[in-house]
Amino acid sequence: MRAKSGKENELRAITLPLVKQVRAEPNNLLYFLQEDRQTPGHFVFYEIFATQADFEAHNATPHVQAWFARLPELADGGIEVIRMEILGNRVDPSP
Questions:
Q1: Fewest CB within a 10 Å sphere: which of 2, 31, 48, 93?
Q2: Whole-angstrom Cα distance, residue 15 to residue 71?
Q3: Plot region of 91 (φ>0 → left; ψ -120 to 50 → alpha; else → beta)
Q4: What global pTM score does this model have?
Q5: Nearest to 28 by CA among 37, 16, 19
Q6: What does the longest C-alpha to C-alpha distance in the chain come to?
Q7: What percentage of the chain reaches a pLDDT higher than 90?
Q8: pLDDT one-digit tens code per residue, 23-61
Q9: Phi, psi angles (nearest 5°) of residue 2
């Protein structure tokens, strides 16, 4: 997600509180918010929920819905979502 020009601080301010709220949601396994150091206002969420249904429930929470409602005025082009799948329980160190 990228902030509109001049809206970086405002988007950051409404997004930071989500970290604590989302981490407290049932079945949230991991949630990070990152900001590109070389492009302030370019944010990346890294989030893992136990199931797809848990992710959908997360998106329906009042705090996330309120955040979504502010994006048209603050974010440039909305959110690009890349869905990933966790493969296996551990990384095999062998080449």
A1: 93
A2: 10
A3: beta
A4: 0.82
A5: 19
A6: 48
A7: 76
A8: 999 899 999 999 999 999 999 999 999 989 999 999 999
A9: -120, 135
Q: What is the dihedral of CA 85, 69, 39, 49, to 10 degrees?
A: -20
Distance CA 21, CA 74 (A): 20
Looking up tokens 């301010």 gives 13
Counting Cα atoms < 13 Å in the Cβ hemisphere of 54 gives 14
Q: What is the DSSP string of the chain?
A: -BBPTT-HHHHHHHHHHHHHHHHTSTTEEEEEEEE-SSSTTBEEEEEEESSHHHHHHHHTSHHHHHHHHHHHHHBSS----------SSS-----
